[in-house]
């Protein structure tokens, strides 16, 4: 049978949209199958998303979209903490049942563009030492190193449109960026809160009670996938043009400070997959409301196509030479499991990781002006690297610009407390609300969680989604290493609060609001999930211990790729999407090489000396 | 209004007075709403708010709190809570009290988040 498509891509999120764009640029016939709905009119889609978000009582990551019964996704509100004996516990509802000791506390979104619509857009790189944490006694080593990925990091920074300060990243984040490297856009301005913290904390030291290190504090700007002022030095002096609506060039587009990046940037300043989609060539087709239910293989295990279901359950089969699973960590694992593929290593679904986040929050003595600009613009980078990693999980500290929203929910909760518990009305209330909100700040300690085969996604033995497919079932826990990281983080937070003269309001209560809650060495900690799902089809250098190779090709299944954060052997302390995008661009190059190989005339392959194919993916280094 | 700490000009300028009246009548019932209007509308001298409201019964106090929360957040506190409209969300008095704007309603431009916050706007 002649395949109608060269490539089928499953999922039109960040990874799938990028792959499709690159292969489309090579003239490849690409069919993108997307489970979620696509807005018929993208402009209307933008307005609808905003109105839906405004009207949502719980402003959770999925709140810009109406739920779609046929394609459920897990929302953070599906989890509730309980106080039941023998200790802290939690309950789950919805799409992602769980049976582990602690909850996997993150969600994702299944609409066209995926979780990539709602992400915050922070885009730091991993550190060179992050590619091998086995030397620190935990996690899994990558089959690649930083140098292998470096050119693709550059390409990904170009694709996503990253604003950053190379000199600062070099000096204070530990990245070996070459002296002549410039990010596409200049660093985004630091928030007023960042500046207040820098003025009081830069150069001060805090003690990490677990590693016993004394660490110098320094507020460092975070690279962002959102539009700032273009850098004339970018790309050897060629400069950069920001991209706005539909991914079109829009030189004046800037982040204007809407402070709603999660879930929706109304001004097209934040990168989303819809920008890549806007640049798709004519040979790329998107079919939305197409829920892939399994991968088809031929008798030899080679990928042959997929089967997908419409919302009313009608199955359709489509065929291609290459199938790329880009449905995100949990759903990629579910698809491999539903298809019974990649089973040799026994690792499919295993090694689920996230950034469990310890939050601390309080009031500064002075007005901060929260809820302005991106959710976080700077952080403290001093706890990410070094020998301390042996003793406790390393972490990145994000400075939270949006008050207490992640810890306590929207300001409605502050108002309710002041009205109902403090009994305030009138001018007193007005003063108290103003004072309470305008001095809020938060710190977000994002812990590295090492790969652990026991943290896993399986198929639920009997729960089915509305299309009749087994739901994913998650088993999850935090290691002592992570818990020790949180203990260190809390101690660091306490010292920072003292240095700032801040009023600490951190309290992981009530139980219902903290499903991720545990006791550790006599103290109670609460965590949230950063939404950074990784693992489940991790890469490695042998089929015995990993699911994909360094190109994200499934061992044993030629033509089948599983791309995304699921391939990452370690999630490091950086927000993972830039690294994931770099890996994706690298895979796009590999796929193009496979297809070029297929198309090479037989006479040439048999007679001509074999030259290694060096495909050039636009935007990727040659 | 006495309850919110904002004067009637500030409240009328939100364009929400009529809408909130409808919501409150729906949620509280006309009788309780009328009582609340009368009681809360009484001109009183300087007072400790909490002390003064002590002579209100629970039903009235609860109604006063719900209406106050509605004005501050654009959301009826429930149960179950609901946002009255996107415009109501945008005009929540909590933001005005803090000298801020509700997220995504009034972007102040590139880099605006780096400046010291403006003072609480007098109204
Ligand atoms: C609130 C939040 C904030 C975040 N902030 C950051 C951040 O600041 N920095 C960072 O690096 N990362 C961040 N992330 C993580 C980031 O969103 C993900 O890493 C990224 O979106 C993953 O891209 P993806 O393409 O693999 O998956 P997605 O973007 O989720 O796309 C997957 C697509 O596959 C589709 N799909 C799923 N199942 C099927 C199926 N069966 N058939 C067909 N299609 C299917 C989905 O509908 C979706 O469109 C955040 C996540 C959340 C939740
Ligand atoms: S702060 Fe506003 S403009 Fe900037 S990226 Fe976030 S939502 Fe978009």
Explain what you see.
The complex is a heterodimer of chains A (622) and B (123). With 622 residues, chain A is of the alpha+beta class. Helices cover 25% and strands 18% of the residues of chain A. Chain A contains 14 helices and 21 strands. Chain A has helices spanning 14-25, 42-55, 146-160, 166-172, 192-201, 234-237, 273-278, 329-339, 405-408, 412-421, 426-438, 480-500, 577-599, 602-607, and strands at residues 5-10, 30-33, 79-82, 89-92, 205-207, 214-216, 219-221, 284-287, 291-297, 303-309, 315-325, 356-363, 378-380, 395-400, 440-447, 456-464, 470-475, 503-504, 517-520, 523-529, 560-562. In chain A, the strands form five sheets. In chain A, strands 7, 12, 13, 14, 15, 18, 19 and 20 form an eight-stranded antiparallel β-sheet that branches. In chain A, strands 1, 2, 8, 9, 10, 11 and 21 form a seven-stranded mixed β-sheet that branches. A two-stranded antiparallel ribbon of chain A has the order 3-4. In chain A, a hairpin with a 2-residue loop joins β19 and β20 (523-529). In chain A, α1 (14-25) runs parallel beside α13, α3 packs across α13 (577-599) and α10 packs across α11. The radius of gyration of chain A is 24 Å and the shape is globular. Chain B has 123 residues and is mainly alpha-helical. Chain B is 49% helix and 3% strand. In chain B, strands 1-2 form a two-stranded antiparallel ribbon. In chain B, α2 packs across α3 and α3 (30-41) crosses α5 (58-73). The longest helix of chain B has 16 residues, at 58-73. Chain B is elongated. Residues 43-48 of chain B have low confidence and may be disordered. Chains A and B meet through α2, α10 and α11 of A and α4, α5, β2, α6 and α7 of B. The structure holds flavin-adenine dinucleotide and iron/sulfur cluster.
